[in-house]
Structure formats: structure tokens, C-alpha cells
């Protein structure tokens, strides 16, 4: 096979869809070579029809092809190139059999074999979005050639195998190990099938009509058992909620969730979701962490309907999968879990990343041009997920939830097990709402950038990006008057913008604050009059609802990013809210925002003083039982006085996680205690505790310490993806150590240049994103842009560089 793996183009996919219909896949997978080695073997038998007998096409296989026969005749393996096997002279009905072996099982490109560092047990998982099924076995790897899959898996005798449904039999193999046989799946796209294996710990529970399973590596057993009931509750409630709201119950009994090592996120495989096991937190999770787990669980579950049952035709509608699942997750969180402030949390935490991505040079339409799968990979970003979710929330506000749900029911009913484009969804919603949504669709989904809505003299002035016409917006303006320390709501004006100027009906003349986009119904940068702004900055904590407080604080953050507020003004606003905030759903995001503002957005000389301000507020908030844990964690990141450390030392006596955080803070302040690190690592039950130890080392303002950690990240690639890697990078990049870190920022660009050719979800989606610098200089920005704009640059790397460089440009401006 040639060294260059080709990326499937949209044109090639359309041609193959017009030519073929896939009847079924029968796939034999042999994992026994992974017990002590690196090779996964497969035999893929594909039964398919050709609408034009005599025509030719190709099948995808990015592995070592050992043999291939088409309708009983041997194919010439010398023609295998670019991850493709040529299929000449097709019959009307065809059977293709391809035997292949994959030895790249350590990079995370579709398959990962990992060894638990604590007990040396081996685990294997697969994750195939967008086109990595071809790395495991031969297939027509595109979303609109759906077919049933039947797996037969040979595995070591001590391993448990999970796939899209339960096995029909598990038998001893004559040549060693066991053979797991699975029934046909429903017609599925190649990217949502799965095979995982290892000596998993399994917990099962019957809930309603479903058999629910949870799996993890043995070393994480106590953490899974701690969280199991919450996971079962959220799963059962989510299946019931979505089944009823979509008028389409999940159609198979078995629903498994497998927590695997060294995975950056989660993947919506039909009936068998894989998760990063870093969400099995190694200390008692906070309210915010529990909310994130519930949200991810519901996001992946929503994909069972939107993505698996009904699948986009091509990757230009990737956003439709991801944005819908994100919207549905928040919707279900509010209605079917204890996390009823989900929309406030979404605004305070996630939505700000969508605004940041949309204001930078990597912004793109939600529905973008995707000429090939490589470009699709670049769209796994905050535009697709977060702005997409926000726009769906605006759609629901525009047509009404009842009409939206009725449209969804018709959509699932009509397109079950098929493929669709955006127009199919929008016509179903439009029919239910009794309106034509074609212009609305074009305005919101086919244009990049964020509109600005400004309230002045009783009108909403709406401007689009770069001065273009704005989109139509349905929003609320909250009217508030000061009542002592509180802001009392005295009215709400409902506005549907029409053109550049829209008069606001029924807006009281006298108010202390007009809060634009109250309830956060639309996606826009909002501005208000000077009096309202001053009231908002000084008294946002007096607003009566969490969503209103989140709107106020996020508006201030947006103004900071645009250079319209100082970091000090932003901190005054958010710290003022935190002094009185009682909603757990927004306390943690506000604490995180305040820490970022104090540590990254403040002039270097001001960082200690700003962190001390935050530490005082966090110390006071730690007296509140409901907020104690996130407040103490923030205090550990900002502690500045002996009084702060005394509070932390008392709280950390039996709290391993908090002790790690305190050690890292002391290390950053010049007090690195190697003996304390070694002692803590010995008593930490986390099998990945070495990452926490490296985090304490990484925090040191010492070049040799930075080099040691860097080698573990980039040379050894020893750090698990996802949260462990992000946490370590946060310890490494300490903006107060600016002068020391500037050369390391350039070193990051050196690594980017090496990684550009690797691609892969783990490499790009986790490593490059997680380790991006939080401080740099102008020379870094210039070089980052040059690398991003090189001909042939990996689209995902280009987008990451452009977005992170734009954020750093704004940070440097804020620092003055």
C-alpha cells in the first residue's frame, strides 16, 4: 500500500452511493494478537449489489491487506493503494472477502490497545468516526451506505468483549481463547459499529424494558461502583424521556456504556457507547462534574436517534448530528435529571467557547463545504457543537417547543434507518409549525460570524458580521429596577428583529437595567445603554434568576474579549456575582471564568493581586456546603496568603485530589516538595496518579522541570487523552511565568509541524488542543498564522491554530 492514505471526497461518495447498495457485513475480528502484541486481524465479508453490472469501484481498507477475493476470484494486491482496494467488473450481486491485519494499534487512530500502568492489564477499544472503520477491516466507509453488521470476535479467554448488542454465544475456540458471536445489528453506518475488549469489570441492571450495562478497567472498579446508580438513573430516565418525546422507543433491550482508558471524549456507537474513563473521577465529583457526566451521557444517547437511527447523508451535515445531540442533552438534563439549571450552565460554560470560535479567523458556517472527510474532521469544533446547539435553541424559541417536537417525531418516523440532509429536518419542523423556514435556514446555517444586537432609544439595532445584514432573532429584553441589593424584574419585552432596526413595543421608559437576550434565547453579541451596563457590572448578582445572571456575566466576558472592558471590570462583575450566587449550576463556571480572567487575561504584574481577590471570594464561598468543593479547588489554584493555605491544609487532610492541587500551587510559587509528591502518589488510588505528580512538577518555574514534563507529553506520549492531558497542560502553562514559557510556546509550534501529517482524532482532537499555550508573544502569533495558512495544511490543525492564536491576540491586548 502507498504511504499516502486518500481522504474520501464527497464526489466519490456520491458516485459510490449511486452505484452500490450494501446488503450486509459479516466481520470476523481476531483480537488475540493484542494480548501481548500489536496486531488486530480481520476478515470482512461484504455482500452488496451493483446497479450497473460491469462497472468498477473501490472498497476502503487502511491496513495490511493479506488477501482479497471478489465473487471467488483473487484480486491483484499490487493495485492496493491509498487505503483502497480496486473492485473491477462488478456483478449485479457480489461477495467481497478481505483478510487484513492492523499493527497500528497504539496511536488511537480508530483502534487503541492500552496497558493499565497499575496492574499491566490490556484493554482494546475502537472508535471509528469519521472514517476509521477502514483501519480495522475492509468496508465502504461513508455514512450513507448503511447495512447490518454481524461480528464474530476471537479474544483471549480472560477478556470480555462488547459490541453493538449482546452476544448470542460465547464458546471456547479450538486454537485458544473464546469466540464471541453477535447477531445482526440494524442497518448502521460504518462509523457507529464497535468492538471493545479486555478484562472489564461489569455491572448490569434491569431498568424498565432495558438491560443496562456499565464496564470499566479493573483498577477503576471502586469509582464505577460509586457512580453506578447515578449512571443507571440518568440512562433509564434519558431512554424514557427521548423515547416518549420522539415517539420512538429505543428498539433493543441492551444498552451498554464502556469506560475506556486514553480516550479523549465519548462515541455514540449504537447500543454500546464508549467513554473516556477519566469521567470516573478519582475523588468525589462536584455538582458541575456530575452535570457534565449527565450531559455527555444524554448527548451520546440522543445520537441513537439523531445520527444512528437517522444519519446525515454526508459530513457537511455533521453539525446536524452533533448540535442536535448537544441541544437534546441540555433539554433532557433540564427535564429528566436533577440538573435543572442546565441552560444557565450551558451559557456560563460552553456557549462562550462558541462565541470565541465564531469571532476568530477560523469561523465557518454551521453547515460548511466539506469536499472530503479530512475537512469534516476539522468541523468537530465549537461552531458545530456549541453554536449549533445555540441556533437550535433559537429555532425552538422561534417555532415553539411543541411544533419542534412534532416535527422531530415526523422526521424520525419518515426517515428511520435512512439518511437525510438538513432540508429534511427543516421541512418537517416547518410543516409542524406552519411556516416556511427556508430563508431562516439559509440565514442561520449558511453564514459565519456572530450578529450584534444593541438596545438604544427603544430600538434594537441589529448588525451582521462585517456590517452585513443580521439574521432574524427572537429574543427577550428583561427590564429591572434596583430594589436595595436586588434587581427586581418589572417587565419583559419580546422582540422579533426585522432588518437593521426594530422598535421594541411595551418597553418601560424608566429602568436601571435593560438586559438584552434575557433567557438566552438567541446567539448574538449583545450591548445595552451606558446606565444599564454600569448597573449590570456592579449588581449582576442581584438579578433574580441564574439564567439572567449568566447572561449578564457572559455579556461582560464578550466585551472583555472585544477590548470593550478591562479585566479588572470583568472580575469586579463576576466576583460580585460569586459573593451572592447560590445556584450550583453556575457557581463552577463562574469560578472557572474568574480564574481564567485573573491568571491569563490580567497583565503579568497584576496576576498575584487578581488571584488574591479571587482567593478571598473562594475562601468565603467554601463556607457554603453546596459550593465547598469547587470553591476549595479554585482556592487551591489561587491561594496567595498563609491564611488561604491554612484553610486548604485543613480541608485537604483526607482529600487526595485537593492535596494534589495544593502541591501544584505551592510548586508554582517556588515551593516544590518532591518527598510530598512521592508520598501522595503512593497513597493515591488513581492508577493514573503519575499524571498528577507530573502536574506538580510542571507547575514549577523551572526550565528543566518543564522539559521533563514536555518529554512525557510529546516524546513518550505517555499522558492519557482528555481530562488528564488538559489538566497537566494547565499546570504547565502558567501565565505568570510568561518569560520562561515564551520559548516553550514556540516549541509547541515545532511539535505542530511534526504532527501535521499524522491526523487522527487523538492526535489532533486532544493533544494539539489540550497543549495549546495560554501565553505567548507576537512572534508566536505571526509564526502560528504562517503555519496555519501553509498549502496542504491539515484542516483541523489549521482551525486549531487560527482559533487559539486569535484568543492569544485578544489576551495580549487585554494585558496591555
From TrEMBL:
Listed cofactors: Zn(2+)
All residue ranges annotated as the ERAP1-like C-terminal domain in the record: 513-809
Substrates-to-products reaction catalysed: Release of an N-terminal amino acid, Xaa-|-Yaa- from a peptide, amide or arylamide. Xaa is preferably Ala, but may be most amino acids including Pro (slow action). When a terminal hydrophobic residue is followed by a prolyl residue, the two may be released as an intact Xaa-Pro dipeptide
Domain Peptidase M1 membrane alanine aminopeptidase, chain residue ranges per copy: 232-444
EC number: 3.4.11.2
Principal EC category: hydrolase
GO annotation (BP), single: peptide catabolic process
Domain Aminopeptidase N-like N-terminal: 120-192
Molecular-function annotations in GO: alanyl aminopeptidase activity; metalloaminopeptidase activity; peptide binding; zinc ion binding
Entry similarity comment: Belongs to the peptidase M1 family.
Protein's UniProt name: Aminopeptidase N
Record gene name: pepN
Amino acid at each position: 500500500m502507498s504511504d499516502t492514505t486518500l481522504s474520501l471526497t464527497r464526489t466519490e461518495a456520491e458516485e459510490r452511493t449511486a452505484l452500490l447498495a450494501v446488503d450486509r457485513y459479516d466481520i470476523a475480528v481476531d483480537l488475540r494478537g493484542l494480548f501481548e502484541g500489536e496486531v488486530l486481524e480481520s476478515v470482512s465479508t461484504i455482500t452488496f449489489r451493483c446497479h450497473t453490472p460491469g462497472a468498477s469501484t473501490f472498497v476502503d481498507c487502511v491496513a495490511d491487506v493479506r488477501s482479497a477475493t471478489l465473487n471467488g476470484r483473487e484480486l491483484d494486491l499490487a493495485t492496493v493503494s491509498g487505503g483502497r482496494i480496486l473492485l473491477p467488473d462488478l456483478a449485479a450481486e457480489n461477495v467481497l472477502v478481505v483478510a487484513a491485519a492492523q499493527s497500528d494499534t497504539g496511536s488511537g487512530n480508530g483502534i487503541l490497545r492500552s496497558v493499565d500502568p497499575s496492574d499491566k492489564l490490556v484493554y482494546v477499544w475502537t472508535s471509528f468516526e469519521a472514517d476509521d472503520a477502514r483501519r480495522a477491516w475492509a468496508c465502504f466507509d461513508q455514512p450513507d451506505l448503511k447495512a447490518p453488521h454481524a461480528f464474530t470476535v476471537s479474544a483471549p479467554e480472560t477478556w470480555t468483549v462488547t459490541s453493538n448488542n449482546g452476544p448470542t454465544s460465547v464458546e471456547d475456540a479450538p486454537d485458544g481463547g473464546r469466540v464471541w458471536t453477535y447477531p445482526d445489528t440494524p442497518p448502521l453506518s460504518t462509523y457507529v459499529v464497535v468492538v471493545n475488549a479486555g478484562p472489564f469489570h461489569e455491572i448490569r441492571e434491569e431498568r424498565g424494558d432495558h438491560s443496562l450495562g456499565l464496564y470499566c478497567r479493573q483498577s477503576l472498579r471502586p469509582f464505577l461502583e460509586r457512580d453506578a446508580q447515578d449512571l443507571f438513573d440518568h440512562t433509564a430516565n434519558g431512554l424514557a424521556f427521548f423515547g416518549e418525546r420522539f415517539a420512538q422507543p429505543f428498539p433493543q433491550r441492551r444498552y451498554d456504556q464502556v469506560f475506556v482508558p486514553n480516550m479523549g471524549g465519548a462515541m455514540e456507537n449504537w447500543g454500546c457507547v464508549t467513554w473516556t474513563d477519566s469521567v470516573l473521577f478519582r475523588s468525589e465529583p462536584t455538582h458541575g462534574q456530575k452535570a457534565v457526566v449527565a450531559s455527555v451521557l444524554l448527548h451520546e444517547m440522543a445520537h441513537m436517534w439523531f445520527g444512528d437511527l437517522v444519519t446525515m447523508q454526508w459530513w457537511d451535515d455533521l453539525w446536524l448530528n452533533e448540535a442536535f445531540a448537544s441541544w437534546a442533552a441540555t433539554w433532557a438534563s433540564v427535564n429528566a435529571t436533577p440538573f435543572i439549571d442546565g441552560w444557565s450552565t450551558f451559557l456560563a460554560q460552553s456557549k462562550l467557547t462558541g462565541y470565541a470560535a465564531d469571532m476568530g479567523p477560523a469561523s465557518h458556517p454551521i453547515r460548511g463545504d466539506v469536499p472530503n472527510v479530512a475537512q469534516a474532521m476539522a468541523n468537530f469544533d465549537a461552531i458545530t457543537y456549541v453554536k449549533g446547539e445555540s441556533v437550535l435553541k433559537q429555532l425552538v424559541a422561534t417555532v415553539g417547543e411543541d411544533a419542534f417536537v412534532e416535527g422531530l417525531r415526523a422526521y424520525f418516523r419518515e426517515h428511520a434507518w435512512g439518511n437525510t440532509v438538513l432540508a429534511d429536518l427543516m421541512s418537517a419542523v416547518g410543516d409542524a409549525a406552519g411556516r416556511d423556514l427556508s430563508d431562516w435556514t439559509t440565514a442561520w446555517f449558511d453564514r459565519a460570524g456572530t450578529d450584534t444586537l444593541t438596545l438604544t432609544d427603544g430600538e434594537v439595532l441589529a448588525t451582521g458580521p462585517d456590517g452585513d445584514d443580521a439574521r432574524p432573532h427572537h429574543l427577550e429584553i428583561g427590564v429591572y429596577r434596583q430594589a436595595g441589593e436586588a434587581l427586581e424584574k418589572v417587565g419583559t419585552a419580546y422582540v422579533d428583529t426585522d432588518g437593521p432596526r426594530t422598535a421594541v413595543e411595551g418597553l418601560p421608559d424608566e429602568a436601571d437595567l435593560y438586559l438584552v437576550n434575557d433567557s438566552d434565547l438567541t446567539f448574538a453579541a449583545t450591548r445595552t445603554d451606558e446606565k444599564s451596563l454600569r448597573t449590570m457590572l456592579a449588581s449582576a448578582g442581584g438579578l433574580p434568576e441564574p439564567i439572567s445572571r449568566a447572561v449578564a456575566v457572559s455579556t461582560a466576558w464578550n466585551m472583555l474579549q472585544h477590548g470593550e472592558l478591562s479585566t479588572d471590570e470583568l472580575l469586579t462583575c463576576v466576583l460580585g456575582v460569586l459573593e451572592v450566587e447560590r445556584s450550583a449550576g453556575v457557581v463552577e463556571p463562574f469560578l472557572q471564568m474568574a480564574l481564567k480572567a485573573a491568571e491569563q487575561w490580567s497583565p503579568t504584574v497584576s496576576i498575584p493581586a487578581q488571584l488574591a481577590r479571587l482567593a478571598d471570594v473562594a475562601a468565603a464561598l467554601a463556607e457554603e456546603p453546596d459550593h465547598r468543593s469547587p470553591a476549595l479547588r479554585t482556592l487551591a489554584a489561587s491561594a496567595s496568603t498563609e491564611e488561604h493555605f491554612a484553610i486548604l491544609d485543613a480541608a485537604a487532610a483526607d482529600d487526595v485530589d485537593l492535596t494534589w492541587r495544593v502541591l501544584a500551587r505551592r510548586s508554582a510559587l517556588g515551593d516544590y516538595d518532591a518527598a510530598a509528591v512521592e508520598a501522595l502518589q503512593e497513597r493515591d488510588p488513581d492508577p493514573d496518579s503519575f499524571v498528577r505528580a507530573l502536574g506538580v512538577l510542571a507547575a514549577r518555574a523551572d526550565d528543566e522541570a518543564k522539559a521533563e514534563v514536555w518529554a512525557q507529553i510529546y516524546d513518550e506520549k505517555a499522558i492519557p487523552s482528555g481530562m488528564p492531558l488538559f489538566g497537566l497542560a494547565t499546570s504547565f502553562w502558567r501565565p505568570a511565568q510568561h518569560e520562561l514559557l515564551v520559548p516553550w510556546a514556540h516549541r509547541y509550534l515545532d511539535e505542530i509541524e511534526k504532527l501535521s501529517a499524522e491526523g487522527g482524532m487523538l492526535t489532533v482532537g486532544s493533544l494539539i488542543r489540550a497543549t495549546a499555550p495560554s501565553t505567548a508573544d507576537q512572534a508566536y502569533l505571526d509564526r502560528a498564522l504562517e503555519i496555519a495558512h501553509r498549502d496542504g495544511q491539515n484542516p483541523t490543525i489549521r482551525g486549531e491554530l487560527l482559533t487559539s492564536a486569535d484568543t492569544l491576540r485578544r489576551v495580549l491586548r487585554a494585558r496591555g
